[in-house]
Amino acid sequence: MNEHRAPERPARLRVGVVGAGRVGPALAAALALAGHQPVAASGVSDASRRRAAELLPGVPLLDPAGVLARAELVLLTVPDDALPELVSRLAETGAVRPGQLIAHTSGRYGTAVLDPALRAGALPLALHPVMTFTGTSVDVQRLAGCSFGVTAPEELRLAAEALVIEMGGEPEYIAEEARPLYHAALALGANYLVTLVAQAQELLRASGVGAPDRMLGPLLGAALDNALRSGDAALTGPVARGDAGTVAAHLAELRRHAPHTVSGYVAMARATADRALAHGLLKPELAEDLLEVLSDASSAAPGDGPR
């Protein structure tokens, strides 16, 4: 591995963005507020071009090689699955320059994915903002206090953390080998939360509630706050209480009105029961009937209806 001395604090840098999706322009705009200079971006779709125009006015749109030719710090903000091929292609074509900072924003990968660029003399950084992005200027404001999962060679760690701080974020160092687990945790907490909330809204509408978002807002806000503060001690509801009859009634209604939600309900109920048992919230004598209901539901799932 190449050895490089990193500055304690990065100098003012010319910044390029490869992949003008929702993330890259926002990060470049945040770096601009800190005094860095966005100099080029790449984007193919009309939406990416609009985002670049809004968040990086006056910054030219070039192909990826053109972006690297102008930039000292390159942000690779492409989908996870596209990142390895992009890095290899840029390195093979000679677009990567020695001493150039190459940072990706993927949660899944650490810096090993940047090895082709490292062999070309680049300085590899993984800077993953733990936030969902809208692709608008509000994202720049939301970066204040946002955690970033940072992975970098030891000699570049201070530089990586300084860049995050300049964007308003809070750096959290993640070891290379821990990146997949770290990313799985975030997907479990954030991505699947959206699915659960959307399903809850769908069911409330079916039950006649006119404004599901207004009904769920205070409830889910309180549940999230309690969970972050108290962990498993915040568990409430029929599963944690061992109300097998209520759970059976829920499943009967879901099979009738929304069979596509049954498997998810059962999976989450089982996981909740396990945690409630482990933390002494669910009495073992009540858990037996509850788990029997969930087992029966799993057996019946294939015949629940169209999925």
SSE inventory with pairings:
Layout: E1 14-18, H1 24-33, E2 37-42, H2 46-55, H3 64-70, E3 73-76, H4 83-92, E4 101-104, H5 115-119, E5 123-129, H6 138-142, E6 147-151, H7 157-166, E7 170-173, H8 179-206, H9 212-230, H10 238-241, H11 244-257, H12 262-278, H13 284-300
Parallel strand pairs: 1-2, 1-3, 3-4, 4-5, 6-7
Antiparallel strand pairs: 5-6
What this model shows, in words?
By secondary structure, the chain is α/β, with parallel strands linked by helices. It is built from 13 helices and seven strands. It has helices at residues 24-33, 46-55, 64-70, 83-92, 115-119, 138-142, 157-166, 179-206, 212-230, 238-241, 244-257, 262-278, 284-300; strands at residues 14-18, 37-42, 73-76, 101-104, 123-129, 147-151, 170-173. A seven-stranded mixed sheet has the order 2-1-3-4-5-6-7. Helix 1 (24-33) links the parallel strand 1 and strand 2 (37-42). Helix 11 runs parallel beside helix 13 and helix 12 packs antiparallel against helix 13. The longest helix is centred in the middle third of the chain and has 28 residues, at 179-206. The termini are far apart.
Q: Could you give the distance between the termini?
A: 50 Å
Count of DSSP H/I helices:
13
Q: Which band does the percent of strand residues land in? A: 5-15%
Strand count: 7
What is the spatial order of strands in the main beta sheet?
A: 2-1-3-4-5-6-7
Query: What fraction, in percent, of the residue positions are helical?
Result: 40-55%
Order of secondary-structure elements: EHEHHEHEHEHEHEHHHHHH
Secondary structure category: alpha/beta
Outline:
elongated
